[in-house]
Amino acid sequence: MIHTITPTEFASLLRTEKRPVLAGCLQNDPLHAEQIETLQYVAEKFTNQFSVCLLDPEYFSEFSRTYAIAGTPSYLLFYLGEEKTRFIGFADELNLMNILLIDEYSDLDKLEPAFGQYCTPVHPVPGLSGLFRSWKRQ
C-alpha cells in the first residue's frame, strides 16, 4: 500500500530515509487511477530498495511551490534528501523503473545537449546495480 503524505511528513521522510524515495504527485480522480496502480506496482516490486509515497493532492499548491512541480502526474526521485531526477507525464512501469535505475545509465545523462551548453550529470542512486542488466533505457 502506498502512503499518502502531507508536506510536513514528506519533509521528515526526506530527512530520515536512507533509501531512495520515489514520490508520485497525482490528482485523485479517475484519469489518474491507472497511474496510482502503476505506482503501487513499482512500490511492491521494489519495496526493500525504495521508499514510495504519494504526495497528498490536497496540498498540491504547497508541493508545487516547494518542489517546482508544474503539473500532474509527476514523479520525483530523491536520495538522502536531494532530488536526483523527475519524470513528468503519464508513466508506465518501464518509465518508473527507468528513473529508479538511473545509476545504470548515468553516463547518458552527461551528454551535452544539442544547444551546446554543458549538462550537469544526474547523481546516480546506489543500490540496484545488479538488476535489469538486459533492460535498456528506451
UniProtKB/TrEMBL annotation:
Domain of life from the UniProt record: Bacteria
SUPFAM superfamilies to which the protein is assigned, alphabetical: Thioredoxin-like (SSF52833)
InterPro entries: Thioredoxin-like_sf
UniProt-recorded name of the protein: Thioredoxin
Organism for this UniProt entry: Desulfovibrio subterraneus
